[in-house]
Specification:
Low-confidence stretches: none
Number of strands: 10
Strand content: 25-35%
Bound molecules: adenosine-5'-triphosphate, magnesium ion
Distance between the termini: 28 Å
Mean pLDDT: 91
């Protein structure tokens, strides 16, 4: 199908635990469509972060493959895939401490050649303000922002990259309910108005409730939840 942009094909992955191999993902397959907002639920330890690591080419599966626009990311090149086609927001913020918020956002804009040049700072401030970071905060060093504010900068940083695929591991986990709601609305808008594919791991039923499709990681496989 044409609208499939990202595909996990029979992924298997395990860890050695106490000298024994324990499989976490077991021939997991799923096809993600362009312009949809997905959430992934699952108990702690079920393998959600492991799955995102494979989906974002931070690690490689033992078996199976990850396809972007129908191409194996191995043949695209892992680094190229990470740099040009996706953005990821982690449980931990992964920001550069010695830079300000706006500089952190700009580093991701500079990766994409077309965003280079004048107007860059203005755009960075705009993106930050869309996630609730005003200019006076955007100009502060990361270490001088609260945890929730840092998380918003991390989200802005991902948005600045302007790619089709955004992955997130509990990106609203450190935010209060009201802010989390705003951010989730923003993700929804990005999916529906800008045709981005958003895949977020979450523990929150509320976040899952506002996504287009809720998936559950269970027994090493992704299954779609339908209705109530
Ligand atoms: N490097 C590792 N070596 C051995 N076992 C690991 C390693 N990393 C993760 N695991 C185990 O694999 C399982 C899945 O871990 P993972 O971090 O993917 O879970 P998760 O679904 O993201 O959990 P949470 O919701 O708590 O973040 C857990 O039981 C974890 O202890
Ligand atoms: Mg996790």
């Amino acid at each position: 199908m044409e609208s499939i942009i990202f595909e996990l094909e029979k992924l298997s992955y395990g860890y050695i635990d106490g000298g024994k191999k324990r499989m976490i993902l077991n021939e997991l397959s799923f096809q993600f469509e362009k312009g949809k907002f997905y959430t992934i639920l699952g108990p702690s330890g079920s393998g959600k972060t492991t799955l995102l690591a494979l989906a974002s080419a931070l690690d490689v599966p033992e078996k199976g493959k990850v396809l972007y626009q129908g191409k194996d990311i191995k043949s695209i090149g892992y680094t190229k895939f990470r740099r040009n086609h996706m953005a990821i927001i982690f449980q931990k913020y992964n920001l550069t401490d010695y830079l300000t918020g706006v500089e952190n956002v700009e580093t991701n804009m500079m990766i994409m050649d077309h965003k280079r040049g004048k107007g860059q700072r203005e755009t960075a401030y705009k993106i930050l303000s869309s996630v609730g970071i005003v200019q006076s905060k955007a100009d502060r060093l990361i270490t001088k922002l609260s945890g929730g504010e840092q998380q918003r900068v991390a989200i802005a940083r991902a948005l600045a990259k302007d790619v089709d695929l955004i992955l997130g591991d509990e990106p609203t986990g450190a935010l209060d309910t009201a802010t989390a709601k705003e951010i989730i609305e923003l993700f929804k808008q990005l999916a529906h108005d800008y045709d981005k594919t958003i895949i977020l791991v979450t523990h929150s039923d509320e976040v899952a409730g506002s996504s287009d499709i809720t998936l559950k990681l269970f027994d090493g496989k992704l299954v779609e939840e339908r209705g109530e």
